[in-house]
Amino acid sequence: MDWGRTRRNQKNDEKEPPKQKNTTTARDSSGKVDQDNMAPADIIKAINDLKTDLKGDNNTLRQEITHLGQEINGKLDMLGAEVRNLSDRVEEAESRVETVERWAAESTEALTSCLKQQKVLQQKLNDLESRSRRNNLRIFGTDWGARLGELLGSWQRVTGSLGAEDDVTRRARYKLQSFQSDNTAQRDEPQRKGGKIKK
């Protein structure tokens, strides 16, 4: 073995710079950067490219978020307006229901009062009807056998003091005349049969 030659080759190898891979192909097929073989300028360029990409992505995201926020704000405004509208309608409905309930209570109370009054009036009417069907005309202060003139005179004195109308007086006079004729017929009946009249 030639030791001298080997040493020379080693010296030559030391003088020659080590061979580097092509820096332009620093990215492999998957897109990853081969960091062992990149020069500092390439790293700076890659960082700047990354910054540019990130800035673009950030701007796009910012615009999308702003647009989304505007849409959400618009929808929230619409919902707020609808809620206010519904709230106004509910308040109006509550006031109407309260008015109807108050009216129903007042109507029920008025109807109950009317029914009570009707019952009282019906009782009075029944009482008056039953009394009007009876023959209960009595004149106090006159004798049973008094003459018609005396009865009419006392009747006119009574009706005059009460302020009765002429129509009432006429009706009373008619009634007394019919009463007097009935009494006369009853008194004359025993004489026709031959009986005696007791005095």
Automatic annotation (TrEMBL):
<feature type="compositionally biased region" description="Basic and acidic residues">
    <location>
        <begin position="10"/>
        <end position="19"/>
    </location>
</feature>
<feature type="coiled-coil region">
    <location>
        <begin position="76"/>
        <end position="131"/>
    </location>
</feature>
<feature type="region of interest" description="Disordered">
    <location>
        <begin position="175"/>
        <end position="199"/>
    </location>
</feature>
<feature type="region of interest" description="Disordered">
    <location>
        <begin position="1"/>
        <end position="39"/>
    </location>
</feature>
<protein>
    <submittedName>
        <fullName>Uncharacterized protein</fullName>
    </submittedName>
</protein>
<keyword id="KW-0175">Coiled coil</keyword>
